[in-house]
Each structure stands twice: as C-alpha cells, then as structure tokens.
C-alpha cells in the first residue's frame, strides 16, 4: 500500500529544481537530493533514530542527470517506505540508488545534453539568424516541454513502479529518438552554413555582370562557408581548442580584409 | 542614481539569476547564450530607451556564443566555461560602450571587441565556479557533522547557502566587470583605426563558422552522412534562404529516420 500523497510527490518534484544548489566535490548532489526528498522521509519515518539514519543515508554521494533525478527520488521513496515496514534492509536502498542514478545519468545526459539541447539550439539559431526576435521564447518553450514532463512524471513512475521503472523508461526508445534528433540537427545545420556565414569579396562586384551578381554572391558565400566549416571541423576533430580556432579565424579574416580579399 | 551605476546593478542582478539557472537551480536553460544574451539586451536596452537595438545585439551575441560553446556539457566533475556570464557581460559591455558612438561601424567594433573579451571572462567564470564548488564541499562536511549531531536544520541552511554563494559570486563579478570595464573598452576601441575596426565586422560575420564546425563534428558520424550533408549544403546554397524550407527538409528527414529506425 502506498502512503505518500500525490501532492507531496509533486512538492518533492518541485524541490528537485534546487537539486544542484550546493553541488560539491564530495557528495556532489547529495545535499540537494536529501533536501528534495526530506518531506517524504519525514512522512515515512517517525522522529528518532530511523529518521536520522535515513538523513545520513542520503547524504552519501549522489550524482545523476538533474532532469531524471525525480525518477530516482520516486524509487528511493518507494524503497524507504518498504524499509519503514521492515520488508527490506538499508543496503537495498543504497545499491538500488547507486545503480539507478548511473542508469538515469546515462539516459538523461545522452538525451538532453547530447541530443535535445543541440537540436533545440539549432532550431533557435535558424530563427535567431533570421532576425526573429521571439527566438528565446521558442527555445525555452521547446526545450522545457520534455524537461518538465520527465521532472514531474518521473517521480510518480519511480514511486509507483519502484525498481521496475527502468522497464517503463525503455519504452521511450531513447537511442532512436537521439538518432532522429541528430539527423534533424544535421539538416538544419546544412541550411545554416551557406546562409549565415558571411563571406563577401569585392571581386564579384567588379567581374560579374549585375544580373548574375546575386547568384554569384550566393554561390561564393555557400562554398566559402562550406570550406571554412570543413577546415574548422578538421581542426576540431584534431583536438584543437575551439577558442584557438576562433582566434586563428579572426587573424585569417583580418589579414584577408587587409589585403582587400574580404569585405 | 547615475545611469551607469543603475546599469551595473541591473546586469549584476541578471547575471546572478542567469548563473543560478546554469547548474545550481531550475535548469530551464535561461542560462543558454541564445536566451541569456537577448534577455540582457532587452532589459539593458529598455533602461537606455533602445529596447529593440538591445534585443538585436543580444541575439547576435547569443548566436555566436551558443555556437562556440555548444558542446560544453556540465557532466559530473566537468565545469564548462561560464557561457551564461559571458553572454550577459558581452551584451552589457558592448551595448553600454557602443551606446556613446554615433556611427554603425564604431558600434559594431565595440560589440565585437566586447564579445572577444567576454569569451575570456567566461573562462574566468569557470574558475570562480570551481571556487564556489570548493566552498560547497566545506559546507557539505559541515552539514554532515550537524546531522550526525541531530541538528537537522543544517540541511536546508547548508543547501540554501550553496545557492547563495553561486548568486553572490555572479552578482559581484558582473557588477565589477560592468562598473570598471566600460571605460577601458571604450578607450581601446577608440585606439583602433577605422580600417582595422571594419575588419572586426568581417570577423563577426565569419565567427559562426567555428560553431558550425563544432556542431558538424558532433552530428556527423560516418562517410555516408558527410556525403549527404555536403549535398544538403549545396542544395541550400542554390535554394532561396527561406526558413520554412529548412524546417520542411528537417521534418521529412526526421520522419523518415524515425520510421526507418522503427522498422
């Protein structure tokens, strides 16, 4: 039988927004984790040694993806509840939490940091480079839809399904979603390169008839941009620091400008 | 209150809030350059009676910084450069110092120099972030001791203090940089001759290529994809630069990829 009310779980999900406020090199997110689930612990364990032991248990090392942390919190509370009824030992909570935080970190980091954020950022860049002033709002709205979904739904899944929650998460087919997002990012990037790297040279103005100027300008810009991006990609894959690449590009641009090749 | 002091306080407040979002709390991604920079531009522009100009500058800065640091991830122990503070400070320094100039090109030079300076400030911001995390580690030890002594109030206090350190660090850093940095920046841009100054506008137009290269390195996995990608760049070079074409193409590719993966 489940004893924690839905409003309390929602409150814990809300408190998970502050998970990393005291991020540190010892327990990482441990203090934030305990801070978030504290109302649940207080409800499950009466004041005294059991509650104090629960606090100390959750001050141990904890690190996961912040958006999936509520899943771990839900499972942990389900296990704490079983512990309070004497059905399991403390070590089950410790081991489950450790395994689950690693799994959630892998799923969440792969989905949000590696795929969703670059995709949404690229969508926003398309709008921003088209001078669309509401771009920040589009970015925030799009990015936070899955964020808030996993943040709030996660705690209910975790609490309801306990250690079986990984099975439910698997139904999302995260690797496939990541692959789709990656390809979407690739297409949008292919649009951005020829249209938003400004490679302008005065030679076209003097050498091309006016009726071909626009087309010639577009072709030079497109291929010039592709060449620059290709060189940049080779440098980046050769582990040259991105700031050094930017600095070299700046020198290159200033030299070409000085010689009158770029305007 | 003098306008410059008011602007410095406003930027410090924005910097503090935005920096909280980057890891400590919420993580709605207000801290992403594509949001943080336009937000700063809007508030600052409003203060100087040029909201639209501020917003446009914010978008330009946001695009470049978003691209340059797109692959920087706050994973585990990794502390990326502080892109949030770099965005806020780049817009603030560029806008306030460029505000006093009449000509377009002089303003653009201010914006570009401020952008380059902000990249360095982003790296300094990372060091400050690491300092706050070390403070939090001491805080964590203190909280553990207090909980062992049954002083349970220490959990909320310690956790809140962690967030307070992050906010205060960003607030003081942003205030000092804007308060002390505008005049030296103005002096530096005045020393640049107009010819070199215009070269910086060329640099600004080419800088997105670096970010596109980083993004290309992230999304392109094999030779086939590179071939399709180059084909797509050529296609978008020849097509008119319409945003809806990019989204239609991305939609088709994502739909087909999703169906293909399911099969």
Largest interface: A-B, 101 and 102 residues
Number of domains of chain A: 2
Arithmetic mean of pLDDT of chain A: 93
Taken as a percent bin, the fraction of beta residues of chain A is under 5%
Radius of gyration of chain B: 22 Å
What is the count of β-strands of chain A?
A: 0
Number of helices of chain B: 10
The total count of strands of chain B amounts to 0
| Strand/helix succession of chain B | HHHHHHHHHH
Shape of chain A: elongated
Figure out the total of helices of chain A.
Answer: 11
Low-pLDDT sequence parts of chain B: none
Largest sheet of chain A: none
What average pLDDT do the residues of chain B reach? 92
User: Which secondary-structure class do the elements of chain A indicate?
Assistant: mainly alpha
Q: Terminal Cα separation of chain A, in Å?
A: 73 Å
Give a brief rundown of this model:
Chain A has 263 residues and is an all-alpha fold. Chain A is 75% helix and 0% strand.
Topology:
The complex is a heterodimer of chains A (263) and B (263).
Chain A: H1 6-15, H2 30-44, H3 49-57, H4 69-84, H5 90-129, H6 135-161, H7 165-170, H8 174-196, H9 203-207, H10 210-237, H11 242-258
Helix pairs in contact in A: 1-2, 1-6, 2-4, 4-5, 4-6, 5-6, 5-8, 8-10
Chain B: H1 3-24, H2 33-47, H3 51-68, H4 83-99, H5 104-148, H6 153-191, H7 194-206, H8 208-219, H9 223-238, H10 243-262
Report on this model:
The complex is a heterodimer of chains A (263) and B (263). Chain A has 263 residues and is mostly helical. Chain A has helices spanning 6-15, 30-44, 49-57, 69-84, 90-129, 135-161, 165-170, 174-196, 203-207, 210-237, 242-258. Chain A has two domains: 6-106 and 152-170, no CATH class; 175-258, no CATH class. The longest helix of chain A is centred in the middle third of the chain and has 40 residues, at 90-129. The N and C termini of chain A lie far apart (73 Å). The model of chain A has no long low-confidence stretch (mean pLDDT 93). With 263 residues, chain B is an all-alpha fold. The longest helix of chain B is centred in the middle third of the chain and has 45 residues, at 104-148. Chain B is flat. In chain B, 51% of the residues are buried. The model of chain B has no long low-confidence stretch (mean pLDDT 92).
